[in-house]
Amino acid sequence: MAKVVKKKKKKLGKRSFSGGGKGREQSPLRPKHVEKKPPCSHTCPSGNAIRSFITTIAQAEKLGKTKDQALEEAWYIYTNTSPFPSVCGRVCPAPCETGCNRKDLDSAVSINKIERSIGDFGIKNNLPLRVLSEEKKDQKVAVVGGGPGGVSCAYQLARRGYGVKIFEAMDKAGGMLRWGIPGYRLPEET
Question: What angle do CA 70, 151, 51 make, to 5 degrees?
Fold first, then answer.
């Protein structure tokens, strides 16, 4: 005698994940791409685009660029956020390396050395800093203090076309970079 097998009807509105999930529902919504900062950039106090300048240097040969072309491009990526690549490469305590997820695989990327190379290359080749606007604004801005914060502020304002004047109490600008860090760690010409 033939055996009768009843098939269960699927309930409408419920779909299971591929792979045979029992009774789980699949959302009808599409996944959303969420842009996240890489851990090195996330922990960088200067907010530098670390992944961008490292990728530019690392993929230079693949893209048919010379080492000098890659370093020049990296210089412009770096100086978009900070005018001090050579200084940061020498004195930054490198929280970016602490946040590097590569350290779990072998060791963290030595970002300080890369920054120092980019900065020294830019200084050696007299690379100019780019302006963002050729338009000269009527407003003038006074920046009190010629330390790294004041110089960075003046730099970003000047790139945008503002007239900037830095007021410094000491005879030379530089703040703690000049007066607080010994010369063997940060040479004066840097």
Answer: 30
Contacting residues for 113 by C-beta, under 8 A, at least 6 apart? 89
Question: What is the end-to-end Cα distance of the chain in Å, rounded?
Answer: 95
> What stretches of the chain adopt beta strand conformation (E)?
140-144, 163-167
Taking 90 as the threshold, does the pLDDT of residue 164 lie above it?
yes
**At 11, is the pLDDT very low, low, confident or very high (cuts 50, 70, 90)?**
low
- At 100-154, the pLDDT tens digits run 888 888 888 888 899 999 999 999 999 998 888 889 999 999 999 988 899 999 9
Which structure tokens are listed for 156? Answer: 């970003």
CA–CA distance, 122 with 183 (Å, rounded to integer): 20
- The Cα–Cα gap between 90 and 102 comes to 22
pTM recorded for the entire structure:
0.74
DSSP 109: -
C-alpha span between 103 and 33 (Å, rounded): 26
DSSP designation for 29: S
Angle CA 181–91–168, to nearest 5 = 50
According to DSSP, residue 31 is labeled P
Sequence letter at residue 162: Y
Question: Per-residue b/e over 110-146, b at no fewer than 16 CB within 10 Å?
Answer: ebbebbbbbbbbbeeeebeeeeeeeeeeeeeeebebb
